[in-house]
Amino acid sequence: MVVDKELHVANDMHRPITMARILAVTLSCVAGLAVAVIFGMAVGSSGTDFGALFRSLKGQGAVDATTWTIFWQLRWPRVLLAMETGAALALGGLVFQALLRNPLAEPYILGTSGGAAVGAIVGILVGLSLFPGVSAAAFGSSALSVTLVLILASSRGGLRRDALILAGVMVNAFCGALILFFISTTQDARLHTILFWLMGDLSRAEISTVYRLGGVLAACSTILLAMARSMNVMLIGRDTAGTLGVPVTWTRWFLFGVTTFMVSAAVCATGLLGFVGLAVPHGLRMLLGPDHRVLVPACFFGGGGYLIICDALARWIPKHGEMPAGVVTALIGAPLFIVLLRRTLR
Predict the structure, then answer these.
(1) Are 273 and 326 in contact, with CB atoms under 8 Å apart?
(2) Helix H or strand E encompassing 155
(3) Distance spanning both ends of the chain, measured CA to CA
(4) Alpha-helical regions (H) of 43-152
(5) Which tens digits make up the pLDDT trace of 200-216?
(6) CB within 8 A of 118, min separation 6: which ones?
(7) What domains does the chain contain, in order, with CATH numbers?
(8) DSSP secondary structure code for residue 160 in this structure
(9) pLDDT tens, residue by residue, 134-178
(10) Is the distance from CB of 117 to CB of 272 less than 8 angstroms?
(11) Is-cis flag, bond preceding 77, omega within 30?
(12) Per-residue pLDDT, 1
């Protein structure tokens, strides 16, 4: 069965992918992202007003100071941060699924996000600056979590796909216990901030955070796009990739490092947002096929648009106030994870 699946993937990889198709898919995703940005800017807890947004964009008609502040000082940085975080998490899920050859692999489930959260909370509690102190602590803890999951799921024959999810659940549970321990021993005003941040908080978006995460995302996504062909080959199988000249061990650990750094930066900026790296890559792979030359730009723009929509719904659904965006992503992603798990176990 594994051999048949590898042959099926190999046949898909040999289908010609033209630059015209890559450009068409990318432009379609950019158009979808633009629609999501407009929706995210116009919708909020203070009301929905597409007309005022378009007038503000065109510079036509008078827009009062309060409306201008809501659009450009509150919602615009939030939309940008949601876009960057969604892109980072979607790309993280795409890379993990390719390297581990498991459709259930994603940063939240494998403990990457939980490890980053532990490091970020420790950095916050000891008084480190957001950048680089808290960011470095989040990356170090996230890398340690990923390494631990891979060690627990490894055997003499390589990674055991059936043990990978179990190892991720175990590491996630341990990270959750550490988080609860830190919360229970915190008695000051930082407790509320940490609790809301853990549920995926985009309400504290600042333009400086957008710039920092944007720089990390731009560098990491460029590297992933450049290594899309290597991920295609590794998706066929380790032995096949080796015979085709891909340095499998180096490529795997390098991509793990780049992806972990990118995901930890996103978690440090916005908190835990689960299942974004599961829903977006899986849905796009079903629509576009397994070629990463198409999937990397599609996940970049598609993931950004997806999280913008989720965050807008988190602000729009409650009658009073708003809910964390992580609640919406979990409500969508958790049922999808259950469906994929049942399909994988058959």
Answers:
(1) yes
(2) strand 154-155
(3) 12
(4) 50-58, 65-69, 76-100, 112-125, 135-152
(5) 778 778 888 899 999 99
(6) 141, 145, 175, 178, 179, 182
(7) 2-345 (1.10.3470.10)
(8) -
(9) 778 888 888 888 888 888 877 766 666 667 778 888 888 898 898
(10) yes
(11) no
(12) 40
Q: Give me the numbers of helices (H) and strands (E) for the chain, helices first please.
A: 16, 2
Q: How far is CA 331 from the centre of its chain?
A: 16
Residue entry with tokens 């309060």: 66
Q: Tokens standing for 36?
A: 């999501």
Name the nearest CA neighbour of 106 among 44, 41, 165, 178. 165
pTM: 0.86
Contacts of 278 (CB under 8 A, 6+ apart): 93, 104, 106, 108, 109, 333, 336, 337, 340
CB count within 10 Å of CB 132 equals 12
| SS3 state at 159 | strand
For the cut 80, the answer to whether the pLDDT of residue 196 exceeds it is no
Mean local confidence (pLDDT), 303-307: 94
Which residue type occupies 257?
G
What are the structure tokens assigned to 322, written together? 């708003």
The number of beta carbons lying within 10 Å of the beta carbon of residue 168 is 28
